[in-house]
Amino acid sequence: MKKMLALLTGLICLSAPLTEIAVPSAMVLSASAEEYEWNTNCSYIYDALSDDQKDVYNQLLDSCRQVDASSADYEKIPAVTTRKLDASEIISLSSIFVFDHPEFFWISPNYEIGSSGRTITYTMKLYSQYQNGETRQETKQQLISLEQEYLNQMSAYDSDYEKAEYLMKQLRQDITFGYGEDNIDQSIASALLNHQTVCAGYSKLYELLCNASGIDVMTEISLNHAWNVIHLEGNWYHVDVTYGLFLYSDSELHEFDESKGLYTTEVDGQEISFYMHEPYEAFYTFALPDTSQSYSKPLLAGDATGDGAVDILDVITINQTILGKDTLTEEQLKAIDFNGNGKPDSEEALIIMKYIVGLLASLTE
Predict the structure, then answer these.
(1) Which of 41, 110, 132, 229 has the highest count of CB atoms within 10 angstroms of its CB?
(2) What is the pLDDT of residues 38-53, one digit of tens each?
(3) Distance separating alpha carbons of residues 252 and 249, to the nearest angstrom
C-alpha cells in the first residue's frame, strides 16, 4: 500500500507527449469553487466534494488569495490543517485545487505535509522564480494583460461554440509544445510568457479563459496526459488543445487513442496498459461528467439542404417541402424557421432569396 501511495502522490508531471510515459507532477482534476478574479463558473467537482473536503479547499483558496494579493516574499503558502482527511486525500484535493485556480500561476508541484496526532498540516510551495513578491506581482500584471487580449478576441464571436473553437485553434497557433528550461511548464506562465508549454499548461489556460468567458470547462487526466472537458448546449465533450481535438465523445477519443496505440506502465509490480485519454480511476472518488454524446454542429442559418452552404438550392428545397415533395430533418427545419412557426413557408424562402441576392446582410438579425 505504501508503494502504491508513493506512486500516486508522485505522478506529477503531466507533460508527456504521445510517444512516451512520464511521471506526472500533480494529480489533476479541475472545476471551480466560486467566482474569483477571472469569474470561473464551473462548479461540477467542487459541488461533488464532501463538507470536510470543501473546508480544506476553502482554506487553500484563502491562503492562495493572501499570497496572490501580497507583494511580500513567500516560499510557500500559509499552511492548512485538517483532522478529517488523510494524507492521500489532502494531496489529491490540493491537486484538484491547483487546476481549479490556474490564475495562481506561481504554485509549484512541490508541497510539504506533516502530522501531529490526528491533525495533518499541508502547504504548497511557490516556484522559486515567483517567491519574490515584487516579481510575482509584476508577472501577474503581465499575465492579466495577455489573458485579456485573448478574452477580447473571444468576445468578437457570438456563440459559445465559436468562442471555444477559436480559442483552441489560437492557442495551438500561438504556443508550441515543449518543456522549456525554467521548470514552469505546469503553469500558465509557460504558455503566455514563453509561448511553450505541455498538456498541463494548455489545459489550465484553456480552462481559465473559457470559464472567464462564461463557458464551463474543467480538466481530466490519465496517467500521462491532461485535457479539458467542456459543457456546451446541455452536454459535456472532450477538448484537447495539445492534439487539436475539439468536442470529442468518449468513443471518438478511444478511436483516436487506438490509432496511436496503447501505453504501458508498471504499478506496484504489475504492468498496466491504458489509453492516452482514459481517466485514471484512482484519482476520482466521484462520477465524472457524461461525455458519451457525439456533438452535432448546428446547421448554418438558411441551410435547408444541410450541405454547409446557403444558396438557391435551399430556396428550392423549402418550396418543394411546402408542396409536399420533400421533407426536412429537425436540424434543417431549425436552420430555416425564422418566424418560429415550426414549419417551412414562403416567407422563409423569400428571406433566404433576399440574402442570396444581397438585399439582406444577415439571416440572423
Answers:
(1) 229
(2) 445 588 888 888 999 9
(3) 5
